[in-house]
Amino acid sequence: MGWKVKANDRAYHQLPEFQKKVFLCIKKSRYSGNAIKTYKYNALTFIPLNLYEQFKRVANVYFLALLILQIIPDITTLPWYTTLIPLVVVLGITAIKDLVDDLARHRMDKEINNRKTEVLLDGRSEHTQSAKWRDVQVGDVVRLKKNDFIPADILMLSSSNPNSLCYVETAELDGETNLKFKMGLRVTDERLQGVHELADFDGLIECEEPNNRLDKFIGTMLWNRERYPLDLDNMLLRGCKIRNTDVCHGLVIFAGADTKIMKNGGKTRFKRTKIDELMNYMVYTIFALLVLVAAGLAIGHTFWYDQIGAKAWYLFDGKGYSASHRGFLSFWGYIIVLNTMVPISLYVSVEVIRLGQSKFINWDLQMYYADKDTPAKARTTTLNEQLGQIEYIFSDKTGTLTQNIMQFKKCTIAGRSYVVKQMEKADLSARVFQPVDWSWNRYADKMFQFMDHSLVATVRSGKDKDAMEFFKLLSLCHTVMVDGKFTLDMVYQAASPDEGALVTAARNFGYVFLNRTQDTITIQEGDKENSYEMLALLDFNSDRKRMSIILRFPDGRIRLYCKGADTVIYERLSAESKHTKSTQTALDIFANETLRTLCLCYKDISAGEYEAWERRHKEAQVVLADRDAALDRVYEDIEKNLMLIGATAIEDKLQDGVPETIAKLAKADIKIWVLTGDKKETAENIGYSCSLLTDDMQIHYGEDVKSVPLVHIQSAPPLHLVVNISCVCVQSETYFFTYSGSYALQVNLNHLTHGPCVDFVDMACECEAVICCRVTPKQKANVVSLVKKYKKAVTLSIGDGANDVNMIKSTLHIGVGISGQEGMQAVMSSDYAFAQFRYLERLLLVHGRWSYIRMCKFLRFFFFKNFAFTLVHFWFSFFSGYSSQVNWFITLYNLCYSSLPVLLVGLLDQDVNDKLSLRFPKLYLPGQQGSLFNYKNFFISLFHGIFVSLIIFFIPYGAFLQTMGQDGEAPSDYQSFAVVTASSLIFIVNLQISLDTSYWTFVNCFAVLGSIAIYFGIMFDIHSAGIHVIFPAYFTFTGQYRSDACLTLHIHSSKLNPHACVCRGRLQRAPPALPVVDNRADRGHQPAARHLHPVPLKDHLALGRRPGEEQEGVNTHCVITPHYVSGSQTCWSRVPPEALGDESRTPNSLTRLKTLGISHIILCLFPPLLQRTQAGFPHSIVFCSSG
């Protein structure tokens, strides 16, 4: 133990031996200051640190890489801001959310650090001084008053209450509102009441290092050459609040970041759903497909350019790149163009849907518990769809299936059971069946009911010593505190409902617990008030399953009282103990009635025996290493040869709706395991009462199954489940139960030995229900881990108390907390929380099922609509020389045209309503089987998208391929083709989501029609004349947006090889000689071709230029008109002068071209038009601009 604290000596904690290395040779004190820092960022680190955290997500890195590619001029096929804007929006929204959260943490830290407390600084002052929390240091003595928050982890020294008791509220620590008591050591309470004594205090504390164990503290105090043991009862933890105590003093042990509450503020393990994991693999698959498609198109472009592009003079760009180099650039261009296979909007939409589903759970009034004003709470937004895939539920019993409101119902004393058997006493008067009248006892709790009048008469007579000893034990052997002064309406503060019920029962039978101090317990026995000196308290824990107290009676006798589970008590009974068989019979009867039982016993101890044991006990108390084990050994020495008195039976009623809920969940093929500390008979009968077990089930008991190997469990230390981690996980090829029918397994984990753990899991998972009895909290967690490890199933753990926290945290998938009678620790560790077990039915069968179906439908359609859109580019590549072409439609498609309808399906869709979901639990099965979203569904969406993209592209292409109007002119061009294709896509995807929508609302209808309306609105704006006036530099032609890059569009036909190219700027070189046919020849015969030389162009081509312009290569507007085709050769001719009109018209045409920013245009026709042209001037011209 290296943690040492010296009272009233700040300099001591700065000694070199307490320094730790921070960086290189820089050192600082290992003792933290009391200022806390929960915020993550400051003004300098916010931007870099937040960006670093966000770019740890693979999706953000992917889109950043796309943005970098788009900045490179030779690669980009899309304006860089089309990726930058959505990426910045996503990063910005996340950053703003993180900033708002962090500013709130800054404010909270500032408020807490500036709280005031009273400190005795280094013992130099005769009065305490007010100081801010951030200025408090380890070793300071502080004074706390009523309703003060505790500023650090403090060793309590003294208080204004008798015997140094102090009441604290731990709501901020563990969520529990009931008061707990702490106490200082007797020696400090007696000697450290005044300020002078506190200033002179120089004790040295040696204790464990700072840790997050809220339930444990081990240390010793060395003062005046004496060593005193310290435990958690002596500690006031930061975050608690002083109650019912005027003043108390304490010594700071842990400060700031070293306090237990701050140590518990670590990061929670991030849970991912099965759909998350599957979606990640699918994204990797899509990216692999994207790379393969881009590589194929790049190879195609390489061959195309080598065979065709390099020989086309009008494609010359002056860069001199080789075909392979151009193919390499084309590969990256297609990576950009086809990135819509995995758009950034996918991740944003998924988070929006999950947030909405969490809100629906929070707003569900049918999961609201009015009695405690407790709504259901989704404490996470990432696991909603996982609720629709649960296969195994692991449930605690007490407080989860039951109400955890204990009532003392029956008992057995000295072999006699005190119960009312109505069937046998039916002939007696009705008075027998009336509750006992407690008017004779002024301290009685009027709410307590008991039916057996004979026991009251026996106790009041004072003749039955066993009955008197029975209730005296109940009033003395406990850790209950009295809340308030001695009044007739005393309120007991109990650590567990069991203890409160037993002490209340003793109170009503005339043995009234009045008060306790550190050394005494005072009770009223009939008309007498007696005080008993408490020599030792052997406290209860989940491993010991018993508690004992050693008392010195007023007459000087020393007696040990003990109460605990029958399994541990019967092992420690004396051979001379009486009534063991009759008591065991009564215990079995009580257990069959689902009552909770405890055995009561005592032992008289001689003074010499106690003195020898006390020495060993004190030695064990000051052991620093493994103190618990040392104390357990000492406790075992004294807790033996016990004499049995009797047993109690406490009723814990089931919560409302538990049997119906379990029956519904079982019909949904959800297997339920109940993990309880009760004995076998109690657990079995609870199983029947809550419909977990049914009459048609064949029940197998784990300890009786001899023909199969069972789980390997070692008992070291006793009653601890230790899983053999060396066993091999091999799925059993044979079934353990070969007969047909239903079967259940009931297991006492302490009886299972010698077998591989996989066999236990396989055998248990074949059963419809499993009950594990006599389990400790650690064993609960181990059972959950076994199923999680060997079955790979989706599991859910549900509990209500601190003993269920390990089980809830060990669940990889879903943890549910019930806000019951045992505080809020289970809720604080859970993913979902509500007040009653019956709400689990609605959480899974309604919200879980809906969330799963909605998410699956959303993902299937999202992948489909993006495949259908993106693959149109793929088909177009075969007709454009494999050159990547894009426009604003790509950006707007996922942003405006198709996002809202599918998002609303993910939020609102219902295949059936909630009533039918609960009425037919079998509807839950598809989620367990994962049948709505898997690789099969993914590839169906892929092929569906491929099919739709083929239809969308090739039907318009075929329609426009050989189209001609009545006037002999082609009515369409590339722009019309693109608009028709895009419109078809928008109609199809919105119609498809309409067909897939099961639950129509106004917002769904508005979203579908609104998306189509937005598309046509934007398309109308782009194709209107007004936008050219507003943005003439960007919209050079109707419906065409000009990019900053020089884009090249290639049209290739297998029959003909005409090409259309757009080049912006100067003519880099003269065109090669072209074959020209004399128009004056007879059109019915093919004339002899002659070569047309490039200089001068105006001698062979219709040339128009504005006055003062250069004639060669500068701002030249030339029109090359194909005339007709002979074989595979395109013939070119001079445009007839009459086709251009008079000179007054030509400048106007050229002026219009100049206004549109065209500096150099080469125009050509579709191949079908070339074949049909009979005149010297083409019927239609296709304009291909640089945009």
Blueprint of the fold:
Elements: E1 3-6, E2 19-23, E3 26-29, H1 46-54, H2 58-71, H3 81-113, E4 116-120, E5 129-132, E6 141-145, E7 153-159, E8 165-169, H4 171-174, E9 179-183, H5 186-191, H6 195-200, E10 204-207, E11 219-223, E12 226-230, E13 235-236, E14 241-243, E15 247-254, H7 260-263, H8 274-307, H9 323-337, H10 345-362, E16 377-378, E17 392-396, E18 402-413, E19 416-418, H11 453-461, H12 465-476, E20 481-483, E21 491-493, H13 497-508, E22 511-516, E23 520-525, E24 528-538, E25 546-552, E26 558-564, H14 566-570, H15 580-592, E27 596-605, H16 607-621, H17 627-638, E28 643-654, H18 658-667, E29 671-675, H19 680-689, E30 697-701, E31 713-714, E32 722-723, E33 742-748, H20 757-765, E34 769-773, H21 777-791, E35 795-799, H22 805-810, E36 814-818, H23 825-828, E37 832-834, H24 839-877, H25 888-897, H26 899-908, H27 914-919, H28 925-929, H29 935-961, H30 974-996, H31 1002-1022, H32 1025-1030, E38 1074-1076, E39 1090-1092, E40 1102-1104, E41 1117-1119, E42 1121-1126, E43 1129-1133, H33 1137-1140, H34 1145-1155, H35 1167-1172
Binding site for ATP: 396-398, 499, 540, 563, 596, 676-678, 774, 780, 803-804
Active site: 396
Cofactor: Mg(2+)
Structural commentary:
This protein has 1187 residues and is an alpha+beta fold. Strand 33 (742-748), helix 20 and strand 34 (769-773) form a beta-alpha-beta unit. Residues 422-432, 706-735, 751-755 and 1041-1187 have low confidence and may be disordered. The two termini are 75 Å apart. Helix 15 packs parallel to helix 19 (680-689), helix 20 packs across helix 21 (777-791) and helix 24 (839-877) runs antiparallel to helix 26. Strands 16-37-36-35-17-29-34-33-30 form a nine-stranded mixed β-sheet, sandwiched between helices. A nine-stranded antiparallel β-sheet has the order 19-18-28-27-26-25-24-23-22, with helices on both faces. The protein has a six-stranded antiparallel β-sheet with strand order 5-4-6-15-7-13. It has 35 helices and 43 strands. The chain is 37% helix and 19% strand. It is elongated.
